[in-house]
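Entry for the shared binder. Reason: the reviewer on the internal report wants the predicted structure included alongside the sequence.
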Amino acid sequence: MWKHGFSTTGKQGKAGETMIEESIAAVKQAEQQAESMAADARKQAEELLRQGEETVQKIRTEAEEKAKQAADACMEKARKAGEEALEKAAGEIGAETAELRKQVEKKLPDAAEAVKKLILGD
């Protein structure tokens, strides 16, 4: 028999069996720890993904709200500009209409006389 409990005949001594059992137990324990670490890593990854999705959704919602506010502000500005343009155009048309009426009123007696001549044949 050798010094560490191994014999040259292939039989192991008590110390050798204990060492093998300890090695097997250590391997099993390491496997369990590795499985536990892998499970923890999966949980952490899932949590990070969930948090990432929440962050993306929050950013998307905020961006949509800001875009809506910007679009609303732009539409309000365009509406006001349109109203101002309509008011200006209405004022210009009103002034042109008043000028045309003045010109028509000046020519009305002559027009009435021309119609009278056409009707009466003068």
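Summary line for the report: The first helix runs from residue 14 to 120.
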